[in-house]
């Protein structure tokens, strides 16, 4: 039995004023105002909250300069934390409005800012997972036009990057999660391509990721290359040519003839039957230097079991290189020609960054283009 009409009738008879339920449009407007306030707070903080970089030249000595740096670094981290918090506040309020009133003009208005922030949050795995559903809805929304799609797809790319860099997700679990995200990105691009004609800009996302995947897991780069070939314009396809050339190198024999620091001529073919690490590096490269202790550990464990390192230095100074090698007791062969990025093999193999480490198997075939990841494990596998 329903009594509500009787209640309203009694109230009317009593001459009372009954507040009517707020309309959908009014509620959506109220929620939109909340979103606008959150956006305004974020923008104001971005503009005025950033700590001022100190003038390190004014420091009387290194100790004071270091103290200034540490203080600034702490304040800047606090600033970044607040930006992140305010960004999530915008995103959360936007999601609530969109989920409740998806077909309103208010929901349409929050899309640009939501897209921009979604493109950034993929770098945090937990947060990215929380907003996966919102990302999917926006990707399918007709109002998310071409100019927003590339930004939105960054969510997926950053999410993959965060998984790759994660220290808590390892081994097969990491590979499985990355593969899942690659497959989802391909689905996303396919779904977008079905809505627009001439989607030549969208495959840039796939191309960028394919370049990264080539060093992480080449088998995952191949489907991304197919996406680029399927939808890419001339610029994408031009860039793709170099990537495909590198992918084609995997599994093929690698030929290199090098002169070591002491003037000895060596060839990669001299090491048939051994597993060889080819290391493009330099003493001025911080990440390269950080890996030296681990390289030494692996070399000491396996050099007498059929493992060798051939280093190609991009240093400009032979003396600096010699001194570094002596100081750090690096016993493996070093090639140096003083040409840095103009080195013959750096140019031939299109080396864009260092450290770049490749593993060559016992038959002289290029087996891995991302040897810095799980080096010892990979060496052991190839030596079996």
Automatic annotation (TrEMBL):
InterPro entries hit by this protein: AhpC/TSA (IPR000866), Thioredoxin-like_sf (IPR036249), Thioredoxin_CS (IPR017937), Thioredoxin_domain (IPR013766), Thioredoxin_ResA/DsbE_sf (IPR050553)
Organism whose genome encodes this protein: Sedimentisphaera cyanobacteriorum
Region forming the signal peptide: 1-19
Domain Thioredoxin, chain residue ranges per copy: 247-384
Keyword field: Redox-active center, Signal
Record protein name field: Thiol-disulfide oxidoreductase ResA
Pfam families: AhpC-TSA
GO MF, any single term: oxidoreductase activity
Chain segments annotated as coiled-coil in the UniProt record: none
Gene this protein is translated from: resA_1
Source domain of life: Bacteria
């Amino acid at each position: 039995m329903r009594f509500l009409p009787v209640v309203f009738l009694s109230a009317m008879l009593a001459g009372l004023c009954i507040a009517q339920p707020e309309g959908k449009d009014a509620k959506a407007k109220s929620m939109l105002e909340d979103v606008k306030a959150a956006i305004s707070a974020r923008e104001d903080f971005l503009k005025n909250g950033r700590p001022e970089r100190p003038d390190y030249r004014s420091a009387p000595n290194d100790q004071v300069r270091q103290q200034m740096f540490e203080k600034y670094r702490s304040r800047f981290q606090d600033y970044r934390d607040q930006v992140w918090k305010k960004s999530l506040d915008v995103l959360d309020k936007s999601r609530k409005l969109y989920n409740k009133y998806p077909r309103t003009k208010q929901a349409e208005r929050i899309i640009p800012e939501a897209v921009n922030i979604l493109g950034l949050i993929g770098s945090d795995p937990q947060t990215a997972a929380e907003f996966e559903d919102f990302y999917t809805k926006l990707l399918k929304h007709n109002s998310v036009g071409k100019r927003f799609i590339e930004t939105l797809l960054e969510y997926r790319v950053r999410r993959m990057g965060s998984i790759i860099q994660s220290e808590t997700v390892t081994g097969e679990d990491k590979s499985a999660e990355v593969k899942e995200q690659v497959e989802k990105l391909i689905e996303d691009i396919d779904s977008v391509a079905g809505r627009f004609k001439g989607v030549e800009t969208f495959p840039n996302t796939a191309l960028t990721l394919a370049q990264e995947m080539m060093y992480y897991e080449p088998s995952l780069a191949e489907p991304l290359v197919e996406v680029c070939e399927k939808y890419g314009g001339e610029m994408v396809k031009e860039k793709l040519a170099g990537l495909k050339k590198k992918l084609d190198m995997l599994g093929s024999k690698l030929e290199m003839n090098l002169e070591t620091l002491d003037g000895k001529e060596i060839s990669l073919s001299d090491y048939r039957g051994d597993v060889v690490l080819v290391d493009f590096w330099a003493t001025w490269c911080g990440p390269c230097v950080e890996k030296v202790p681990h390289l030494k550990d692996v070399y000491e464990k396996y050099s007498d079991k059929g493992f060798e390192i051939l280093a190609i230095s991009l240093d400009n100074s032979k003396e600096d290189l010699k001194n570094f090698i002596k100081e750090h007791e690096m016993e493996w062969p070093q090639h140096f020609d003083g040409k840095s990025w103009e080195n013959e093999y750096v140019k031939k193999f299109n080396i864009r960054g260092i450290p770049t480490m490749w593993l060559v198997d016992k038959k002289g075939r290029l087996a891995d283009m991302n040897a810095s990841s799980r080096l010892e494990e990979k060496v052991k596998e190839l030596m079996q």
